[in-house]
């Protein structure tokens, strides 16, 4: 019911979830949630983190500029909560899949998309997300034995999703 990928390469999980969401939506599936697109930046400079919310036309920038030399977290928590609100509005019992760009620090602390993940699971909607390896312990304490690691490649995600759909019929 809850699948996750884990990849340490910068932006790799974001790109894969974006690709899979696009494919599922083109296949006519009702996908709710958000995928992250990292705009600009390189290995040294920070990118702009933008969430694309399914069913919402405007992307939401969730990063903030902290100024030159800043080393703190650039996540704008208010922007993230706005994004969660838009994504929550798209979730229903006829949703085929909820994709959440990541289970990160906000979710570890009880915020972000954490409640939406729980709501989707209560509705029987499969959830696909990404986890940093360093957050895996907190994630598994939240999910118990309900989470399943998926190899970070399209064929593995397709197989996982097909299995989820078979369980609901």
Automatic annotation (TrEMBL):
InterPro entries reported in the protein's UniProt record: DUF2478
Entry-linked Pfam families: DUF2478
Full protein name: Nucleoside-triphosphatase THEP1
Organism: Actibacterium pelagium
């Amino acid at each position: 019911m809850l699948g996750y990928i884990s990849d340490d390469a910068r932006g790799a999980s974001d790109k894969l979830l974006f690709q899979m969401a696009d494919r599922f939506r083109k296949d006519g599936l009702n996908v709710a949630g958000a995928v992250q697109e990292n705009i600009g930046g390189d290995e040294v400079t920070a990118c702009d983190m933008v969430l694309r919310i399914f069913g919402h036309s405007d992307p939401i920038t969730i990063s903030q500029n902290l100024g030159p030399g800043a080393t703190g977290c650039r996540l704008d928590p208010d922007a993230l909560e706005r994004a969660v609100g838009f994504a929550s509005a798209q979730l229903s019992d006829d949703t085929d899949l909820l994709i959440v760009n990541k289970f990160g620090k906000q979710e570890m602390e009880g915020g972000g998309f954490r409640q939406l993940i729980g709501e989707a699971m209560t509705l029987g909607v499969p959830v696909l997300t990404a986890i940093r390896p360093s957050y895996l312990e907190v994630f598994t304490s939240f999910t118990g034995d309900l989470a399943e690691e998926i190899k970070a490649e399209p064929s593995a995600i397709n197989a996982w999703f097909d299995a989820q759909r078979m369980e609901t019929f």
